[in-house]
Every structure is written in structure tokens, then in C-alpha cells.
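Appendix B. One record, verbatim.
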Amino acid sequence: KSLDSRLYSVVGAAGELFAIRRDLFECIPNDTILDDFVLSLKIAEKGYRIAYCSKAYAMEYSSDSMIEEEKRKVRIAAGGLQAVWRLRPLLNIFRYGILSFQYISHRVLRWTITPLALFALLPLNVLLCIQTYPTCTLPAILLILQVIFYSLGFVGYTLAKKEIKNKVLFIPYYFLFMNLNVIRAYSYLKKRSNTGIWEKVKRKSTQNS
């Protein structure tokens, strides 16, 4: 966020702690899932920048479990998909320049093309190996690396279910976990298209208290 601000503007405000000028506030639809994100970028559409303040901070507890974290990730991704549609003017890079570049590269791709492309890589690579056999050295190497990565992710998932922490295996698992939840967000958005109300995620503080 600090680097975004130095380049031009932060892409979206942090819902737990942000401030705007009173005269820049505008009402947004009640079914908006990421109201902080949409509201802040609606203001950016008008030519204002979202500044980052390193001295302002908020604290929150992590999700109580990966099941609870999944709820949060799916909701955020669904809100992102909704926001991409409602913030269509920001896709015009000829009008918004650097802001459009930041928005598309940092948010839009993450919520739309990237997850679909990620999970399409494996079957496409298998198809490429079949078509170029037996001279498919590079595709074969990439396929082996992909299988290893997915296998590590599955092992990380298995350990996470047993509440066994392994930082090395958690990385591929969480990477796949995040992208899979973006795909699940399509269904979430379809089911809750008329409401911005979302289920509160259980935090570790609740359990500890």
C-alpha cells in the first residue's frame, strides 16, 4: 500500500480504518459487499487519490479456522467480482492512466482471469505434452513441477485439516486455497446478489475469551 501510494494511489481503503472528506461521501447500493473498496474507488474515479498513512493502524484477530477463513476469502472475492462490474469506468486506462493500471493489475486480474488461468494450466500442459510427444522436454518438466506443486498443496491441506502447522507446505496450499475461493465466489455472488449482508467470521479471540 505504501508503494502504491508513492506510485499514484492506494487501490481501495482498508475497511477497519479509513477516513474520507465529508463532502466526498456518496451513498452506494445496499447490496454492495465491499462497501469500503467501492466507496473509496468511486471517489478515486473523480480524480482524487487514496493516500496511505503508516501511522494509522488497526488490529484484528485471525480467523478461528481455515473453514472460517474460507468464508472470508469467498466473500471478499465475490465482493471483488461485484466491484469489477460496478467500477467499469476504471478499466479505461486512457482516461485514468496509472490508476487503471494499478486497479487492473492488482485487483481485476486477481478476481477474474488469474484463478481461471491457473487451474487451466494443468490440463493445457497435459494436452501440450500429448501433442508434442516425444519432443516435449520443456512441457514435460513444467508438468512435473506443476504436479509436485499441487501435491504439496494437497499435503498442506491434509495437515491443515489435522491442525498440523508446516510453513513450507502451507504456502502452496494457501496459494491454491485463495484462487479456488475466487472460483467459489461466482456461486456466492449468484446466491446473494440482492443483499450485502454477510456471515460474520469467527475469530480466534472468541475462542480464547
